[in-house]
Amino acid sequence: MAKVLMKGNEAMALAAIKAGCDAFYGYPITPQNELPEYLSKHMALNGRVFVQSESEVAAINMVYGAAGAGARALTSSSSPGIALKQEGISYMAGAELPGVIINVMRGGPGLGGIQPSQGDYKQITRGGGNGDYYLYSLAPESLQEAVDLIKESFDIADYFRNPVMIAVDGLIGQMMEPVTFDNETPKWELEPKTWAADGNRSNREKNIINSLYLDPLMLEKHNLKLKAKYDVMRDKHQRYEMINVKDAEIVIVAYGSMARIARTSIEILAEKGIKCGMIRPITIFPFPDKAFRKLQDSVKNILVVEMSTGQMLEDVKIANECERPIHFYGRVGGIVPEAEEVVSQVLKIIGGEDNA
Amino acid sequence: MPKSKTVYKRSEGLSLMDNSYCPGCTHGIIHKLVAESLVELELLERTIGISSVGCSALNYDFFSCDMQQAPHGRAPAVATGIKRVRPNSIIFTYQGDGDLASIGIAEAIHAAHRSENITIVFVNNAIYGMTGGQMSPTTLLGQKTTTSPDGRTKAHGLPLRIAEMMATIPGATYIERVSVHNPQHVAKAKKALKKAFSIQNDNKGFTLIEFISTCPVNWGMTPKDAVDWAVDSMIPYYPLGVFKDATEGEEK
Q1: pLDDT in tens, A44-97
Q2: Where residue B252 falls among pLDDT bands split at 50, 70, 90?
């Protein structure tokens, strides 16, 4: 199939159908509305389930139910709606259920705004709800990458029996780009879902989907089992791209739309004879700290650029292990930094104006 | 020698695990009725029960069918999620008045509104039992609880009649309130449950059976006094009966 021109939210919706998503449950919120709108028509055409729920809370609990019954379930929302879903997401992690959540981020806190933002970094990468858990969180920079990662995300969720969050911002949700749905995605070895409480007990004992462990020793054992899973994600499944880092004197750290803009900044700087590279996290959990150990001695400074007041900044500081000075530049409120703004920051740092 | 004959035994719908309910509490009877109804209708093998939060949170261990434990109040949403992907299964939620009438009222109303093909077993004992006897939306006027120590007043809100309210929802198919305070009513309650599960099995939509139940410990009564209080105080405010029957396609 040739490339087709699609809006981000619609392309992500179609990617989920291609991934074998059985059911979508969601509630309207800008700037992700085209995603459920597209699915309301196309899930039915493909013999799948679409439900517009009464709230985000209900939607994620429907996902929890469907996942418990062994189905591939999806919900999508935007920042304040994701906050409402945290209850169900925590239950999914606790009960070890797969599922995919697409977060088309907008500005906050509170009702915030409806323009692009990366203000949910902590909400996404720190679990978000109650208890010790994490979501495998993917942050694509383009519609094509979003399509490819969503196609793979259902496998990843099934593999780990843990929810996967797709973290994009309103820019990716709202823009149009040519995309193909034919790219090969990595294959994951998946086991049959013999644990599912699907009401088909012809050949087995009853199954229970549960996150309640009243015995502290049992709950500790369960918490450590979950931790082992997150440790595997950290050890073996970090994803990142290192761009132009060879002999670079400064390295930008940016993800999602911000990384894409910074690519242009790097080109502008190259024209000025400045070697600037980039670490682009593709997983924001697990955070790709391994990338920082690969940086050469030529790198004298690190610049973190985000559409937030500096949330990923903290992870970069941890990964950097005090090796290099770290600088930060961010715009918030729905303002998307331009490539030239990032260039100015780099020039300031190199000129010694911006002290970390 | 006279031959022995089994006239009563534990339902196959219940597991062998001891339940966690206090002496005199009627949860045990209601569990038995749910289990027996599913077995007698031959639905147990494809049933998925949804435990909620409250005293019945642990009942994923007490029923012998597949079970999923739900967050507080969200059981009807969890049930919706399952039923839509497994339409041939039989789904019941088991929820108390704190769970359904308070935190989960939106999920209950909208499951009925969408006419989800599920059965809600709603156990109304007019109090939060698990957390130690706090006031719930169905606590009666004058009833003393740990958060209405001088008795419920109008300022706390008048008690909610759930069966009556749910019966006003166009998508609801069958709504009945029953009690288990004596053998006659236990038999009636089982009939109501079997009717609800049969309606679900026929894909005829949303059913809710409200049970008047007791909480001797948190009511501060003996089991016998608790049953009497349910009859003398609860049933006059929460009358028994069928509040909606749209099984023939229209309301009766």
Answers
A1: 999 999 999 999 999 999 999 999 999 999 999 999 999 999 999 999 999 999
A2: very low
**Contact assessment for residue A25 and residue A59, using Cβ atoms and an 8 Å cutoff:** yes
A355 within some domain? no
Q: Are A282 and A242 in contact (CB under 8 A)?
A: no
**Structural domains in chain A (count):** 2
- Which amino acid is it at A21? C
**Is omega for the bond preceding A116 within 30 degrees of 0, making it cis?**
no
pLDDT in tens, B99-139: 999 999 999 999 999 999 999 999 999 999 999 999 999 99
The 8-class DSSP code of residue B103 comes to I
A185 and A136 housed in the same domain: yes
Q: What is the CATH number of the domain that holds A322?
A: 3.40.50.920
Task: Classify residue A356: in a domain, yes or no.
Answer: no
For A222-278, write each residue's pLDDT tens digit: 999 999 999 999 999 999 999 999 999 999 999 999 999 999 999 999 999 999 999
Report the domain count for chain B.
1
Beta-carbon contacts of residue B187 (< 8 Å; ≥ 6 apart): none
**Which chain A residues contact residue B64 at CB under 8 A?**
206
Please give the residue range of the domain that contains residue B185: 27-245
What Å distances lie between residue B241 and B2, B161, B167, B192, CA to CA? 44, 13, 12, 10
Task: Give the chain A residue whose CA is nearest to the CA of B112.
Answer: A54
- Domain residues for the domain of A73 are 4-236
Last residue of a domain, one of A212, A236, A260: A236
Greatest C-alpha distance within chain A: 72
Determine the pLDDT at residue A353. Answer: 73
Question: Is B60 in Cβ contact with A210 (below 8 Å)?
Answer: yes
CATH of the domain at B35: 3.40.50.970
- Give the pLDDT mean for A349-356: 77
Mark yes or no for CB contact A202/B45 under 8 Å: yes
A13: in domain:
yes
Query: Which of B38, B45, B51, B69 has the highest number of chain A CBs within 10 A, making it the mutation to test binding with A?
Result: B69
Is the confidence at residue B250, as pLDDT, over 70? no
Chain B contacts of A22, Cβ < 8 Å?
A: 85
pLDDT, tens digit, for every residue of A173-224? 999 999 999 999 999 999 999 999 999 988 899 999 999 999 999 999 999 9
* Interface test with chain A among B80, B94, B197, by most A beta carbons within 10 Å: B80
Q: Do residues A34 and A152 both lie within one domain? A: yes
Q: pTM of the predicted model, to two decimals?
A: 0.97
Same domain? For A29 and A75 the reply is: yes
Contact residues, chain A, for B107 at CB < 8 Å: 54, 57-58, 61
Domain end position, chosen among A236, A264, A284: A236
Do the domain assignments include residue B19? no
Provide DSSP, A244-294: S-TT-SEEEE--HHHHHHHHHHHHHHHHTT--EEEEEESEEES--THHHHT
Q: Identify from B14, B17, B51, B68 which residue to disrupt to test chain A contact, counting A C-beta atoms within 10 A and taking the largest count.
A: B68
Give the residue among A93, A60, A337, A108 at the shortest CA–CA distance from A225.
A93
